[in-house]
Amino acid sequence: MKIKILYLMVCLSFVISACGQSAVPSASTGAAQATLLIMTHDSFAASKSVISDFESANNVKVQFLASGDAGTALNKAILSKDNPFADVFYGVDNTFLSRALTEDIFQPYASPLLADIPDEYKLDPQNRALPVDWGDVCLNYDQVYFSQHNVQPPQTLEDLLKPEYKNMLIVENPATSSPGLAFLLATIGHFGTDKYLGYWQGLVANNVLVVNDWETAYYTNFSRWGGDRPIVVSYNSSPAFEVIGSTTPVSEPETGVITSDGSCFRQIEFVGILRGAKNLDLAKKWVDFMLSTTFQEDMPGQMYVFPVNRNAKLNDTFQKFLVIPAHPAYISPDDIAANREAWINAWTDTVLH
Predict the structure, then answer these.
(1) What structural domains does the chain harbor?
(2) pTM, entire model
């Protein structure tokens, strides 16, 4: 009964979101203008001009259905898979990919743009979920804090167990936060399933601070923004964005990134055409568009993630300040799917109890 009620709630939310979407005549062509519905996570963003270019080129109105964080959005897609309310779903990442594929919510589509994407990002050989972007979750540190306190910043995960870094680290809860889960996976990939909990016990002994979300960790507790902790789980893109997003001219970022082997976890996000999509041809065109250089070059400034298309170019600030780890930690999507909840529960028992 609870599942039926949840399904009806999901249905109702999408019906309300889609209300008023009936096809209307196009002023320029006189032809009926279709509406393409795209489910996304809440962090999706794109420039209005970029979306307008796609709409004009294809005589379509694109409507985005923001559906919660990546896990919540996937749950909604699964609950409505027999009668999908959208044509396309963007935002499932490699931590949830296997679940999406097991539930068979996507139909295969081998976009011609896949030829421009390196194989390392292609995690579904059947092309049901196509890679769109990547980003690395890494430890960031406040360079000013360490300079003022005459302490060397940590360089590895192991360094965080040293007494000189006691009371310095903030992490996000992996049960409630995507970067928190990614960092937990980094520790599992780096230390192994038999030793990662011992590492976390060491962090607890060094008084690690756990908060529920990235915004709280970064903008409340991180010393760079007025908090008292100089090390935070964030992204390898954070220093570049500090320069780009500063309200006053900044020539150098005040944060650094730890990128030693196994200290970061690479998130890859995917797009797929939902089975039963009502606008299949337009859905294919949208997937092609997301993989094109036009959309790919817009992403970094909108969603803080980076292009998978090898032909897409980053602006000069990203090229100067983006630090890319040579060897991020790796766990296969199948292993994540099989063990994610058990790992989170074990972490909770170790760190929070």
Answers:
(1) 2-134+268-316 (3.40.190.10), 135-265+321-351 (3.40.190.10)
(2) 0.82
